[in-house]
Amino acid sequence: LRQASVGMTKEQIQILLGPPDGATTDAAQVEKLARKYWPQIKDRATEAWMYPVGWSYYFKDDRVVDITQYKE
C-alpha cells in the first residue's frame, strides 16, 4: 500500500517518507506531540519523528509503535 504503519523500522520509514522534519527523544516534547493520546503512547514511545501536515511517528527502539496527525 506504500503507507507507513505500526511495526515498521526507522529505515523503512525513511525510505518511504524521506528524512523527518524533526526528531526528539525529550519526553515532554513527545507528550506535547501526542496530545490526548499520550496516556496510550507514554509507556511505549521513547522517540518521535515529525513530518509535514502534522504527522508524528513514535518509536521504541527501531520500531514504530504509534502514529498521530494533528493539522495545525
Précis, in short:
The chain is an alpha+beta fold and 72 residues long. Helices cover 28% and strands 28% of the residues.
Task: Give a description of the structure.
By secondary structure, this protein is of the alpha+beta class. Helices cover 28% and strands 28% of the residues. The chain contains 3 helices and 4 strands, in the order H-E-H-H-E-E-E. The chain has helices spanning 10-17, 27-34, 38-41, and strands at 22-24, 47-50, 55-60, 63-69. A 4-stranded antiparallel sheet has the order 1-2-3-4, with helices on one face. Strand 2 and strand 3 (55-60) form a beta hairpin. The termini are far apart.
How are the SSEs placed, and which strands pair?
Elements: H1 10-17, E1 22-24, H2 27-34, H3 38-41, E2 47-50, E3 55-60, E4 63-69
Antiparallel strand pairs: 1-2, 2-3, 3-4
Distinctive features:
alpha+beta, 72 residues, globular, 28% strand
Structural class: alpha+beta
Rounded mean pLDDT is 95
Coarse shape = globular
Give the topology string: H per helix, E per strand.
HEHHEEE
How many E-type strands?
A: 4
Unreliable runs: none
Computed Rg = 11 Å
- Total helical segments: 3
> Strand share of the residues?
25-35%
Strand order of the largest sheet: 1-2-3-4
Instruction: Quote the distance from N terminus to C terminus.
Output: 26 Å
Helicity, as a percent range: 25-40%
Quick one: biggest sheet?
4 strands, antiparallel
